[in-house]
Amino acid sequence: MIAESGHYALVLALGLALIQSVVPLIGVRLRDAALMNVARSTALAQLLFVVASFIALVMLHVNSDFSVANVYENSHSMKPLLYKITGVWGNHEGSMLLWVSILALFGGLVAAFGNNLPLSLCAHVLAVQAWIASAFYLFILVTSNPFLRIANPPIEGRDLNPVLQDIGLAVHPPMLYLGYVGFSISFSFAIAALMEGRIDAAWARWVRPWTLMAWIFLTLGIAMGSYWAYYELGWGGWWFWDPVENASLMPWLSGTALLHSALVMEKRNALKVWTILLSILTFSLSLLGTFLVRSGVITSVHAFATDPTRGVFILLILCLFIGGSLSLFAGRATSLKQGGLFAPISREGALVLNNLLLTVACAVVLFGTLYPLAMEMLADFKMSVGAPFYNLTFAPLFALLLLAVPFGPMLAWKRGDLLGVTQRLLAAGVAGLVAVAITWGWATGGSTLAPLAIGLGVFVIAGAVTDIVERTGLVRLPFATVLHRARGLPRSAWGTAFAHAGLGVALIGIVCETTWNSEHIATMKQNDVAQIAGFDVKLDGLLQRQGPNYREMIAQFNVSRDGQPVSVMTPSKRSFSTRGSSTTEAALLTRGASQLYISLGDANAEGAIAVRIYYKPMVLLIWWGPVLMAFGGVLSLSDRRLRVGAPKPARAKQRLQPAE
User: Fold this and answer.
1) CA–CA gap between residue 453 and residue 449 (Å, rounded)
2) What is the pTM of this model?
3) Sign of dihedral through CA atoms 470, 352, 395, 225?
């Protein structure tokens, strides 16, 4: 009965979503508060039922109920409990149920914590959210029902894809979906504002926390996915410019632009039309990512195997929401007032430049992702767009963005002093040049641009520090005064500094890993020694071990340096008989931010085994950077100014109010 209960709960969630999508709008038209409040109660009830449905699917997997097709296709009775649970979303049907559960979660959060919203705006937002939910409930129930029964239940399941039997599956997809789906709230706020015809600074203040929350989760989700690929797939890479990787990067770029644009709108009541458009485009790119993963139009390790019916259904959803929202935008945008004016050299101008570079970079990634698909469909010509294209197009744009990042927070609103800011950033510039000189003198080989990129990363970090130093008066005021000013500094200012510094940290990690990475590939026998980056790596032997649902071959390596033992590393290769496939479990030895990385290939009849050994300098900075960025986002999210309405000074006072 668990499967039937879960299916019934999903049907009830659809019914509630349909009510939520219609009744509140009638209430707005009739100005009936009771009907508008239906949106809150139905959003919370919908969340309750979809969570019940999701829990039912989890119970079926935990209990290994192989009479349910989804459990049979993706589970095994001997699989560890953690992977039974994470296997729920390690497949198309279960991951879509997680998708709509998170969609309902965000709607429920708006219903529960959106008490400061005007009742009509809240009703519109939750109604739009319910339109999205209804479409995806129908998609699941019609094409992707996770509760389908098997007439003659088998004794054992087919097991989960071995690559997915990893802790990464417990973290990466939920975080990614919290980011992807979280942008639906920004979309719903934008559509609601267009329907009401009222967009102001208060709207920007309301939408910013939801956008920031989604951005934080998407940042962490992308970083976790990159690290998972790095250690699990055994090839030592962390980004492949795969179409599905790009599908997560595009909404991140657009969402980052949206955060900065909403800030201008909140502070100066400007960029209204642009902010609304970015809200629509960011979630539209999330929907595009969903289509790419589930439609079958691409072949990727990230893509779910699907049938054409699902692809057509998602394409219809895509056309409905993207086409409908852009049509509404086109019809209403001309009637919106643009708001305040500002000089090109100002904090607003810097944020506009930020938006321009981010959106062009996003467009480059979109072109590189869709162009091969278009060529295959229109000309029956298969091609791929890889790292060389993005290195020539995306990298210069992002370098310009990073060069401009330290200037933005230090420019004044409305009209800034570029010369004055340049003088205050002189120390940061000197730090960057010193980093370039040191890197040039110390490093051997690699691209001649690498030291410049390291210097740019140091400049970004030093610029973030300079901003805090200037705000607190660290070098010119007594320590007690500095401490008092630091305590009174808004958390969003600290958050901005951490987020910008995180960009510089990640850039340094990327440059060091890609430029000075060492590699040693060999076929090794017992007692053979490989030398790499000053380490001696000796193969002590191979042993076999039986796991819960796999057979594992483990290699033991003794690592030493200058004759002194450092550590023992034990990479392995696992064979899953049920699936008839194998995985590589890499061994990692961390030294500071650098890592020694060993993965295994196939063994031959003579007892030798193929071994791939890497030394990756500063590689962990690639992921410490996004964590630092997410931490900055959390600090900004905790700023009390985001929990209250936008200020509404009197008209007389507004004219006298000085610029920040």
Assistant:
1) 6
2) 0.93
3) positive
